[in-house]
Fold:
Amino acid sequence: MSPGPVSDSYDSEFGTGANAAEVRAAVEECIRSIATRAHLRARRNIVGVVQGRPGKYTSLGFYSRDWRVIRFALYRALDTL
Structure:
């Protein structure tokens, strides 16, 4: 006998796939907000950015939720390096 249908995948960090989708949507929202508020145009190669000049200082106002999502995304980025 085979098991019944599985409605959603499970991940140890996010729980269900639906939760992971909500986290992804929050990260994408922060990306758009940063690009808009910092007047960032097209994406640039990260090595060129890191090795280049710091550019203009920007004062970005975010809610604490936004900063937490951004921090989460940065930690996840470190995991891929």
Summary: The first helix runs from residue 17 to 37. The mean pLDDT is 86. Helices lie at 17-37, 46-51, 64-80. The CA atoms of residues 74 and 80 lie 10 Å apart.
